[in-house]
């Protein structure tokens, strides 16, 4: 099936508007709240690191002293947001119409699979970089030198990662909507669904990224700029900026998951449950 990005976008936006109250509530808990907590607890440490940028030893010392804090908010934040992505996907599923509690339960059950996908992707990236460095880097290095070899390896690896990202972009809807619990099977299924549509999906995601950057920049300038003139530099401005950036991130996350949900629905077709409802 040829992917229709306009259809996916319109259907995703219609779903977000129809379910905006519950989606915004979920986004506030799983996307906005972690950003605010990170802003509150890490602002002082980040300010210290920024002020000590000219002294690597001081930066290392500050980072080591606050390593536990960074790990808690780094790993904890990613896990919470991952549950958020899966919860929003479950709420937009065409298989069932879950309550928020049921959607969160489904997200928690799917979380180990998503973690498995991330670990497999990291392992694959490491192996790919190692193979490219040994084979491609070695051959090109003998001919053109180490500098050219390093550049070619980096460009090739980046192109491979971008391609893999497009092919694996439907992992979350596959795990939630199709109930696939095996991480490798979920990755294979996403790879199959995106067949013959990789370039279209890549172009669609690039356009979404450009639109996000434009909207985020405009909103930040419009909402933070005037307040910065009033408050000046300080903790109040930092907290306010965290609220704005967190809100933008929360809304963007919901939109992204909705787009993935309806991209998957278009390429995979309606679920058996949805087809059965049609004939009831």
From TrEMBL:
Transmembrane regions listed in the UniProt entry: 21-42, 62-92, 113-145, 151-180, 201-231, 237-262
Keywords: Membrane, Transferase, Transmembrane, Transmembrane helix
Transmembrane helix as UniProt keyword: yes
A molecular function GO annotation: transferase activity
Name of the molecule in the record: Lipoyltransferase
